[in-house]
């Protein structure tokens, strides 16, 4: 067949020799394509085209495609149920523990049982198909430490399995609230999840139902403040699982959680009531919103007017007043000044020129308000040039003439710099740090 094609082309070329070379080459190409298609066959030629590529993008059904939406929801629910059945239940976990205990490898390390790789594989064979993913050389190597016999701790391995099962269970639970099925939760999705979680947390039994909406808002804002710094209105389920916030929230299942642990946990009832109580105390006219004058009483009441002006310029307000949700972002930023997300929030306020950098003008703009407050309190104002030099020495920016957000984060001194510029109490603490350290040392010695 190939020789027939070659002969046909040769004959065609000979007939067209009298034509110009350019015309001849173009016609030769067209004639070759025609002959090749006839020889190969249209169906075979079609298979070699782009149509061989399988479809990989499926558009989400629109709001008016109700049947498609219902089908998608039902299929996702069935899939999640199937994944849930693949997880180990309590009885199976208990059976795994008995097998590990039975096949442990002596000698014990103190009171801790150990197991070598050979016995580990024996347990894997007897534990059943659900346990198979946990009994691999990779998992064993991850948990292997300094045991002279090359063994791993049975308790550490069991905790590893428990943690993995919990993560999968929680991911499935969160995915049930993922309406779009794209691996994200919108604010309303996370609100529904936490609202339905409240009855399962004994530490929240004392909350009145009228406070539920405020509690949910308080809890959700922490997730979105730290996991959605770009304010896209959604957070990845994977990010929720990776951070410690969900652990803190589910810690409230412990009926014997200490008072100290509750006070340090943002999601506890005392913490939520504290934050909301502060908001109500600041709201002097009881209109449910905070004006700049009312917010000025926040904390020790030493935040500068210039900083508060910028807060109300940059943050979402309603007729010049701040609602509870915006107030929560404000509180999270000031209470977590060391965190990159809090520094990003505060940097946007300090960046008066909106150029993504703090120059000498920006620093002076805020520090003048600190100097004015010092005069009002009868203190001798500190020279701005001295403070400016100290700030640049602390941050050590890549460009000696300006400080970026990344410079602040990299320096590890971002919280100190911010406190110096926005809060008289923060500046006083920095200025008298050596005296405070000396006093603390003396108290420790006593």
From TrEMBL:
Coiled coil: none
GO MF entries: metal ion binding
Keyword Transcription: no
Protein name per UniProt: Serine/threonine-protein phosphatase 2A regulatory subunit B'' subunit gamma
Domain of life: Eukaryota
UniProt KW keywords: Calcium, Cytoplasm, Metal-binding, Nucleus, Repeat
Main subcellular location of this protein, as a coarse class: cytoplasm
Subcellular location as annotated: Cytoplasm; Nucleus
Record InterPro entries: EF-hand-dom_pair, EF_Hand_1_Ca_BS, PPP2R3C
A single GO BP: regulation of dephosphorylation
Nucleus among keywords: yes
Alphabetized Gene3D superfamilies for the sequence: 1.10.238.220, EF-hand
Membrane spanning residue stretches: none
Gene (name only): LOC106176915
């Amino acid at each position: 067949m190939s020789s027939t094609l070659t002969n046909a082309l040769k004959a065609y070329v000979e007939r067209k020799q009298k034509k110009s070379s350019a015309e001849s080459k173009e016609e030769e190409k067209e004639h070759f394509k025609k002959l090749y298609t006839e020889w190969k066959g249209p169906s075979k030629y079609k298979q070699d085209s782009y149509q061989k590529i399988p479809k990989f993008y499926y558009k989400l059904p629109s709001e008016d495609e109700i049947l498609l939406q219902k089908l998608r929801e039902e299929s996702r629910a069935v899939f999640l149920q199937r994944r849930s059945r693949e997880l180990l239940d309590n009885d199976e976990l208990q059976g795994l523990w008995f097998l590990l205990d039975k096949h442990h490898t002596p000698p014990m390390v103190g009171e801790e049982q150990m197991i070598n790789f050979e016995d580990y594989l024996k347990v894997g064979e007897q534990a059943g198909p659900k346990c198979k993913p946990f009994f691999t050389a990779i998992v064993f190597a991850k948990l292997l430490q300094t045991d002279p016999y090359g063994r791993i701790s049975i308790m550490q391995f069991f905790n590893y399995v428990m943690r993995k099962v919990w993560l999968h269970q929680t991911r499935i639970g969160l995915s049930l609230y993922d309406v779009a099925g794209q691996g994200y939760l919108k604010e309303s999705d996370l609100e529904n999840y936490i609202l339905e979680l409240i009855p399962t947390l004994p530490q929240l039994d004392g909350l009145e139902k009228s406070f539920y909406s405020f509690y949910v808002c308080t809890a959700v804002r922490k997730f979105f403040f730290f996991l959605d710094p770009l304010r896209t209105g959604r957070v990845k389920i994977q990010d929720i699982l990776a951070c410690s916030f969900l652990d803190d929230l589910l810690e409230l299942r412990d009926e014997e959680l200490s008072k100290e642990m509750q006070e340090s946990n943002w999601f506890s009832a005392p913490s939520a009531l504290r934050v909301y109580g502060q908001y109500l105390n600041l709201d002097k006219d009881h209109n449910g919103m905070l004006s700049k004058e009312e917010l000025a009483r926040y904390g020790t009441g030493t935040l500068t007017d210039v900083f508060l002006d910028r807060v109300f310029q940059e943050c979402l307000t309603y007729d010049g007043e701040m609602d509870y949700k915006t107030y929560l972002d404000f509180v999270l930023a000031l209470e977590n000044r060391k965190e990159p997300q809090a520094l990003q929030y505060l940097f946007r306020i300090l960046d008066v020129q909106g150029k993504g950098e703090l120059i000498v003008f920006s620093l002076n703009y805020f520090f003048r308000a600190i100097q004015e407050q010092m005069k009002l309190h009868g203190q001798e104002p500190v020279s701005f040039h001295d403070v400016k030099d100290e700030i640049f020495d602390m941050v050590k920016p890549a460009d000696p003439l300006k400080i970026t957000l990344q410079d602040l984060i990299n320096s590890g001194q971002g919280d100190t710099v911010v406190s110096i510029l926005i809060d008289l109490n923060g500046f006083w603490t920095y200025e008298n740090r050596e005296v405070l350290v000396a006093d603390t040392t003396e108290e420790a010695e006593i």
